Amino acid sequence: MNIYLPIAEVAVNAYLLLGLGGAVGLLSGMFGVGGGFLMTPLLIFIGIPPAVAVATEANQIVASSFSGVLAHLRRKTVDFKMGLVLLAGGLVGSFFGVELFQFLRELGQVELLVSLCYVIFLGVVGGLMFIESLNAIRKSRSGKKIATRRRHTWVHGLPLKMRFRASNLYISAIPPFLVGLLVGVLAAIMGVGGGFIMVPAMIYLLGMPTNVVVGTSLFQIMFVTGFTTLLHATQNFTVDAVLALLLLIGGVIGAQIGARIGVKLKAEQLRILLAGMVLLVCAKLLFDLVVTPAELYTLGAAGGH
Question: Residue 144 has what DSSP assignment?
Fold first, then answer.
């Protein structure tokens, strides 16, 4: 059943969009990521214009993240104080990100920027997470005790310290604010919740326990992507309500299922699965970035004769 999307100006199968929303919602509930790092490229692959894909996907992430947060609230695995510090940085970052997005859209460079950002960030984060998780799994299988994270790093020497009781941490508020700031910029430019950056940063940089990271990440993502959607809708007019609704329905259902699956897997298993998916999307985008321009130039040359 094809449905016409008024802002995107294309017709797409409604069941395909519901399925994509459900799959990304599943990942949201399992890993604490918004899922935009997968959904935005997938929307572009099926013919949605990049500007519309970025702005509309941010809207879908709000719903799937909210659904995931509800599931984690029942398990009391959300650090609200840490989430609010991350959120403060995220709101500032998303404001500047939307301004940058609008500027680049006027220059006609949005598609190139989105693709390059994805390839760089997904490649670096996915590679580091995959190596670390693989090492952790090898150590656990060999019977060796997995080394715990260092409790005292340069992060602990910074000023403006706060006590985060749910995470059992006493650290500076500056690193979580900066992590939130970066995620806010990514949410605006790439149409992502930024969980694929924030989850590793919360574990390895801030030293948060893995069981609290997922729910706290979703809490921050929910508000930042909501703010980003509002800015895109009022400034860039690129939010497609019909597309957002279909993705939203699938995402809410998928997030509830994902949260149930996530608690049954070990932390290192969750991380290596997430890393594998990040690297697959990165490889696909890199392939398209390298191959597509050659075909376009060929078509353009053929059309000119």
Answer: P
